[in-house]
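Subgroup meeting minutes
Present: P.N., E.W., G.H.
Scribe: E.W.

1. P.N. recapped why we're keeping a running log of single-chain structure predictions: easier to compare across weeks, and new members can see raw inputs and outputs side by side.
2. G.H. added today's entry (363 aa).
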Amino acid sequence: MTLSFTKLRLYRQALPLKHPFQNSSTIVTEKDVLFAELIDQDGLRGYGECVAFDSPWYTEETVETAQHMIQQHLWPLLQSQEITHPRELNLDSVQRHHMAKTALEGAVWDIYAKKMKQPLYQVLGGKTNQVAVGAAIGIQSDLPTLLTKIEEALASGFQRIKLKIKPGYDLHVLEQVRRHYPDIPLMVDANSAYTLQDTALLQQIDRFNLLMIEQPLGSDDLLDHSILQQELKTSICLDESIDTLADVQVALALKSCQIISIKLGKVGGFNQARAIHDYCQERGVPVWCGGMLEAGIGRAQSLALATLPNFYYPADPGPSNRYWQRDIIQPEIGMEKGMITLPEQPGMGYQVDLSTSEQVYSS
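Output recorded in log:
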């Protein structure tokens, strides 16, 4: 079976979040999302999503740069390749631009799964269509609001709580949360808000019995994290520092962390994500599926990835209605008792509705 692609359409849509989401560096109220629709020689359609933001606060990529790279470089490169399996897809002649690559590669995998008449999670190697999910809660204006949001998330069934922290919004917050919820699975995410000068402060988080502290230090750092991990009992999880398998290899060699966050849209798609997953599994290092405020396509594909066996902790991408008034897939992703059940239909298993999106490219 040869995979050949005849047409590409790109769409954009500004999706307002139900509630503003604040981390240590920014506040997101709306996301400009780029979607790819790929059509093969048999008329099958596959979909992918670019998870970049409209400004380069998280990585160097933006929606604008991703659209340009797909149109001018990645789509011609994809057209030039004759492959029989998505694993053979090679976009490495374009350096980095992982989020742009993910949009195209996700569409290729979606078409392949449809051709195989299997759900996406199965062709990826997942053995179950059940994914446990947790809730990420951004920085709040006051503690009563934060505690209310935690209570709402727990009442909804989420199996793990992640709190965003930053200097001045950390130890006191954790003290109050643990006073009210002493036993819940809890983790924190610093989004690179600290430095090694904060080691004494960060050592105090050990008393809160956290699953992990995510990315406490610089977004491109591996060395300082290795120094900090030696000073902490709490496991460090690396996120922003992980873009490639090579990053993981260096991080584990330096003992910079004990957990790796894999974000499908950030590492360049399923092929790179699976390579990272397998490498960590072979070395007994657990991984977990981070979120990027994905819309339905990116959310469904991230959850399919999270069915692989070494995803140890509840995933970040949760039900659609936690984030969006209306998602672009039907049915929307739902959750029951903290579990998301992926569909058994071929491909992603969701119908994509881009009728309210703007078509920005067609070739």
